[in-house]
Write a structure and sequence with these properties.
By secondary structure, the protein is mainly alpha-helical. The protein folds into two domains: 48 residues; 93 residues, no CATH class. The chain is 79% helix and 0% strand. Helix 5 packs antiparallel against helix 6. The protein is elongated, with a radius of gyration of 26 Å. The chain starts with a helix and ends with a helix.
């Protein structure tokens, strides 16, 4: 009881910021851990997604229950150069193309995981097209320099 109130208050002022810093560090650590946990869960869900779920995410009006050859033919008609150029004229079209290019990369990952060595050139071409679409839409978004 030999300490005066002034001495106790001075010690509290010195230790106060240190305690606050440790609380901030704990909060920062917890928030980073939660973010990384959510990122890993999203990555797991992405890797567990089926081919049909990926095609459904394209939000296209393709016929349901058709063969894969019919689906490929419909996709070829939808992704012609003229259709892509028409969609690239609007902001909504560019946004959709950017999202679909990400899905194309996801499809390439799926094909690489579940396909054989014979599809490697097709996967490389699909990745190349998807990255070209993404870069083109980003350049349009940023504008001319």
């Amino acid at each position: 009881m030999g300490k005066s109130v002034r001495t106790l208050f001075a010690e509290l002022q010195v230790r106060g910021p240190t305690i606050l810093d440790s609380y901030l560090q704990i909060a920062l650590f917890i928030s980073i851990a939660v973010y990384l946990g959510q990122w890993i869960a999203a990555l797991y869900r992405r890797n567990a997604r089926s081919w049909d779920a990926m095609v459904a995410r394209l939000r296209l009006n393709f016929s349901k229950g058709g063969s894969s050859a019919d689906l490929a033919a419909e996709m070829d008609r939808y992704f012609t150069s003229e259709e892509i150029a028409r969609r690239a004229l609007t902001a909504q079209g560019r946004r959709t193309m950017f999202r679909e290019a990400g899905l194309m990369l996801e499809m390439a990952d799926y094909a690489e995981r579940n396909g054989g060595a014979e599809i490697a050139p097709l996967v490389a071409r699909l990745r190349s097209h998807a990255l070209a679409i993404r870069m083109g839409t980003l350049k349009k978004r940023v504008g001319p320099r």
